[in-house]
Amino acid sequence: MGPRGRRTCWAVVSEQLPPGTSFELRLSARGGSTDSAIEQFCNAIRESDFSQVSQWTDEVELLNFLADSVQSARYWQDPDEIDRILADPLVAEELRAVADVIASAPASAWWSSAMPPTEQVFIDWHPRGSQPPTFEGTRTTLRNWQQGVLADEAMLRGSSWWSPPIEPSLAETTRHLPNLGAVALLLQEDGCGDIAGDCWTVRCRRQPRVCEVSGAKEWIELVERYALEISSSRADAWRAATGLDGRWFIPDWSRVGEDFDAVHLSIGGYLSTSGRALLLGEGKATFLAGWDPDKSFWLTDILELSGSPVEWVSTRFSPSRAWQAAGPDEERI
Predict the structure, then answer these.
(1) Strands, DSSP E only, in the chain?
(2) Residue 98 and residue 121 share a domain
(3) What digits encode the pLDDT tens for the residues 35-63?
(4) In whole angstroms, what is the distance from residue 172 CA to residue 70 CA?
(5) What pLDDT is attached to residue 323?
(6) Is the pTM of this model over 0.85?
(7) pLDDT at residue number 328
(8) Given this model, what pLDDT does residue 258 score?
(9) Number of separate domains in the chain
């Protein structure tokens, strides 16, 4: 179980605690004795009754606990006080029971499943009235991305902290759920606070070649097969996030796109892998950061729009985000 998996489990535990207890524990983790905080967190987990979670069937309700973990990820600096306490072996061991209950819930049954090509949704975060998105020029974009990375490495510069090829012209999709236009509405690392987005269903022009990242093993294999060193641009951020000082590598996405149309990170893969320093040997390592759960990055021009968009608007910000499909005349909030 990785850092984001532990934080998701803690979000479920926090929901069961008496009012104010979660805040008191955060203060203890922030300023008190580490040993005392560890003991308090362990006791809170042991004394919580989260058995009913195994009966949850509402997929969106369970995603809201995952959203707490996703939104607290910060791979450009050291982990926050909660993540540091949850990483302690004693606390992590206590959380395993919570993880087992979550995994048994009907609402999480799809969390480790492969990307369903016929259920993919692209979110256009631009205001209503913008031009429909197009998915063209991917090869050129990836070549330019590769050249930019190589230039940064040669010049010993850069301030990036993410692993995937985040480029404005590259398509990113997640699946839709019965009561949610797209998973990415709820699950965004380092989100911009968007309050509305047009959800476009997309389809593939042919059967896609999909690389599935379902855990650390698959991510390491992908990095080793298409290794690209990015130490100059990411070493400072990833050293702070992991405490590891070494040479860092990610996949060369321009080369991955020669063999695959898309790379999909399942929720299970995210929970077990994201935020972990993974050793490759000989002082080399890799790190999965900045990749939202269930997201697919598309590396070829295989996508096209299917149908008209549906605007989804945020209706609540705290304690968690809530989204609903907007009516034709509904104002953005």
Answers:
(1) 120-124, 172-175, 196-204, 210-213, 227-229, 247-251, 262-265, 277-281, 284-287, 296-298, 303-305, 310-316, 322-325
(2) no
(3) 899 999 999 999 998 888 999 999 999 99
(4) 17
(5) 83
(6) yes
(7) 56
(8) 97
(9) 2
In a domain, 35, yes or no: yes
Q: Are residues 178 and 291 in the same domain?
A: yes
In a domain, 331, yes or no: no
47 residue type, one letter:
E
Q: Which domain covers residue 15, as residue numbers? A: 3-108
52 and 129 housed in the same domain = no
Q: Indicate whether 333 belongs to any domain.
A: no
Of 234, 233, 242, 246, which Cα lies nearest the Cα of 274?
A: 242
Averaged pLDDT score across all residues of the chain: 90
- Clarify whether residues 270 and 307 are in a common domain: yes
d(CA 303, CA 202): 6
- The identity of residue 283, as a single letter, is G
pLDDT at 179 over 50: yes
Q: Is the pLDDT of residue 123 over 70?
A: yes
268 located within any domain = yes
